[in-house]
Amino acid sequence: MEYKLHSLKPEEKKLLDEGKLLPIMEEFYTIQGEGFNTGKAAYFIRIGGCDVGCHWCDVKESWDANLHPLTPTEKIIENLISYRAKSVVVTGGEPLIYNLDHLTALLKQKNIETFIETSGAYNLSGHWDWICLSPKKTMAPKEDVYKKANELKIIIYNQNDFKWAEEQALLANKECYLYLQPEWSKSAQLIPVIIEYVKNDPKWMISLQTHKYMNIP
After folding, report:
1. What is the pLDDT of residues 103-134, one digit of tens each?
2. What is the distance between the alpha carbons of residues 157 and 193, in angstroms, rounded to a whole number?
3. Fewest Cβ atoms closer than 10 Å to its Cβ: which of 20, 33, 74, 183?
4. How far apart are CA 191 and CA 69, in angstroms?
């Protein structure tokens, strides 16, 4: 693991490396707002820690994993089974900093669909029904994530991001769905531009942050 947490006891480090402890920022049951699975009820698990560092990130408070409590994965499962969730979205931060094999094994035991949202900057772990790859220019995705991604979601912040999107589409596997999503603070300006782009190149689809329009997490 490249990303470091501070002042861990040896036993904590061992459990963290095994994925039996994870720094959890928040957990909540809501509606998936973006990409292919938009509109589905899902339980979100947001893991703290990220060194990708997107300047427009809307959850910068997730970046420092040391601010978020190390939580046993069994406790995470306890928390979610009180809801009627059939799907779990693991997000961050950058969740692939951590070993997610144990978490997804426990979820599969409960017959829960497993989705992940990742920049792809770390090697893939976990067993996933759906992988949303949202690559960032600051840290290139790993090859194994490109190969297995079900969905490529490119955040459009300025005109140059369309060129970046095309470069990323060439690296994704042939079955991968391709989405362009306006950065929220510039969505009014960018949506008309993205609409015209997709009309001219219909291999792309548009993803919107519908949860923000619905005023839900």
Report:
1. 999 999 999 999 999 999 999 999 999 999 99
2. 11
3. 74
4. 38
